[in-house]
Amino acid sequence: MATPTTTSCKTVLASKVSASFREQIHKDIKERQIQPKLVGFLANEDPAAKKYAEWTAKTCAETGVLFELRKVGKQELEQKIDEANDDKEVNGIMVYYPVFGGKQDLYLQSCVDPMKDVEGLCHKFVYNVYHNIRYLDESETMKCIIPCTPLAIVKILEYIGVYNTVLPYGNRLYGRTITVINRSEIVGRPLAAMLSNDGARVFSVDVNGIQLFTRGTGIRLAAHKIEDIDAKLEDVVPQSDVVITGVPTPKYKLPTNLLKDGVIAINFSSFANFEDDVKSRASIFVPSVGKVTVAMLERNLLRLHDYQHNLVEKSTEKK
What we know:
This protein is of the alpha/beta class. The protein has helices spanning about 15-30, 45-65, 75-85, 100-110, 125-130, 150-160, 190-195, 235, 290-310, and strands spanning about 10, 35-40, 65-70, 90-95, 175-180, 200-205, 210-215, 225-230, 240-245, 265, 280-285. Strand 6 (about 200-205) and strand 7 (about 210-215) form a beta hairpin. Helix 6 (about 150-160) packs across helix 9 (about 290-310). The longest helix is centred in the N-terminal third of the chain and has 19 residues, at about 15-30.
């Protein structure tokens, strides 16, 4: 009789997913003999933001991107963003949030020139995500800039085969049920919108309740709709093929016994949101996404560099 294995779960590391993107970025920069410049503004003492800044600096050095971290006071940040907007040597701008929190941070996100917004957080790009608008121009030569962490998670889902390539582009999550435990304006909400726009049924969970994001029966709607539903976490997680967590506290742990057998579990929080025995239920476990996020940041930067130099081409199916 065969000896059972201890776990049938495959752990997928962000470094492995990001490798091909980083190699392509490095190759493009070297072959084209360009050096896109990215400026990051740090106006807080958040440890997660500092860690993200360190990752960004390290990755940019390896791929050939010129990265400059500017530490500024909260009150001077808006002026410094304006100066970077006007600086032709700067190809991309990012801000490490939170700064003030709430609506003031939303305002700051839209202070960044859309043609330099590597994070995809200005009003124009956020509007396009929610309305399933994928291009900036009618001829479809300029793809929209997508927020980095949601885009990173989409790329991870593509990498592990959650997207069904037999289906048409834009519908490849049809039939999938996904729970996202986070509804922040930076990650959770745009991620739920993107996944549902691609055809999934998405349960969006936060402390205020649960919302259902879908494109309706038979995914006939052009963009997702949102419904407030009377359900609990215990109701939706067991239905989910994929569970994505992003709760920013070390105290939160999603009970493993809620997970469907064979679930795909992805954590984008700086803290471990799944219990230690998550692999006893999961078929695939992704413990972090940070390195893919930074790769998407560089990818967005290269795209904006080209837009600024009027270098566009007919897009492929990929985001």
